[in-house]
Amino acid sequence: MSEANQGSSLFPNYARYPIAIVKGEGSWLWDDKGKKYLDFVSGIAVTNLGHAPHRIKEALVKQLDELWHVSNLYQIPNQEAAAKLLTDNSCADAVFFCNSGAEANEAAIKLARRYHQKIAETGRYEIISFYQSFHGRTLATLTATGQDKVKEGFAPLPEGFKHVPLNDIPALEAAITDKTAAIMLEMVQAEGGIHPVDEAFVQHIAKLCKEQGILLIIDEIQTGMGRTGKLFAYEHYGIEPDIFTLAKGIGSGFPVGATLAKGYLAEAFGPGSHGSTFGGTPLATAAVKATVETIVGEKLAERAADMGQYLMGRLQDQLGAHPSVVEVRGKGLIIGIECTEPVASVVSEAQQRGLLILTAGPNVIRLLPNLLVSREEADLAVTILSSIFAERTAAV
What we know:
It is a single chain. This protein is an alpha/beta fold. The chain has 11 helices and 17 strands. It folds into 2 domains: 3-52 and 300-395, Aspartate Aminotransferase, domain 1; 54-297, Type I PLP-dependent aspartate aminotransferase-like (Major domain) (Aspartate Aminotransferase, domain 2, 3-Layer(aba) Sandwich), CATH 3.40.640.10. It has helices spanning 42-45, 54-64, 77-88, 101-119, 139-144, 169-175, 199-212, 282-297, 300-319, 344-352, 375-395, and strands at 21-25, 28-31, 36-39, 94-98, 126-130, 161-164, 180-186, 188-189, 195-196, 215-219, 243-246, 257-261, 325-331, 334-339, 355-356, 358-359, 364-367. Strand 2 (28-31) and strand 3 form a beta hairpin. Helix 9 (300-319) packs parallel to helix 11. The model has no long low-confidence stretch (mean pLDDT 96).
């Protein structure tokens, strides 16, 4: 066991920072020593409504007094209500609830294959995804992921997956065969460096899928629930996916994921075809229902678009001309600052100054403030970051 993990009963699979967070409220966190941090991580795009949002807490407390768990052998009214909210506000007609983003993407892959093999009877099974993508850590979803680092030590990997470069139409067309069941795409490659996909490329994918009977799966795990300035990121591109997946921000910190699909795919998930013991429990779907009602009712996606524009502008003004900054990019409140060198030390320095940020690859700083972040909080984050970069320049 490594020295850093001595005395712990946990697997050492997380490279944890030396901070123990014990309390959160809105955009702020406190550690066990009483130090206060401005949180621009949001649990990696999970706490979209900030920490401990009152409306979600009320819904969970009410549900705790009534019913925690019941098997999916029975009707679950909260589940039906949460699903209707999601379909009423999206292009989807059917929802499957699970526990995480990886499970949602796993279900999407299974749904695409089962539709082609049991309903359309094409026998197709291959999934095309993109280099630098990230889709999860189950065996199927890490195979779909376009980054070798998550696959190391897990061979043999499942067959039926291909990868092509993002925004490369000829490479995508060359990869398509009569075995292609679906194309799986993130609207913003988050773990891969905060790269929004080109609109022309998305339009071409949608056209190819329609012409060739290929399903389009959009992974909205990190971009969904208002994060990019729309409720769902696919809305920026004027397309409708056949399947899309949600997790992270859908439950405001309560563990829950969802796979959503067009109605014609529902038959592929008939009784006994797929399931999840804890998928869509009364507690989980109480959190989903309250979260969706809040984001939609308070127009928080629109607010994220405005705040994202403000924060991006401030970052470009303060950091855009810095010699070590390559680009500031993103959509809404998922923002990346690409640098000429690794940024791990910037993350550590920001922590010391009371700002929590994270990376998106070795050279990209990732900012994920909650959708209710204030201008004053955004200004404070920019001030801290600009002071770090300025001091580094002065030290050279």
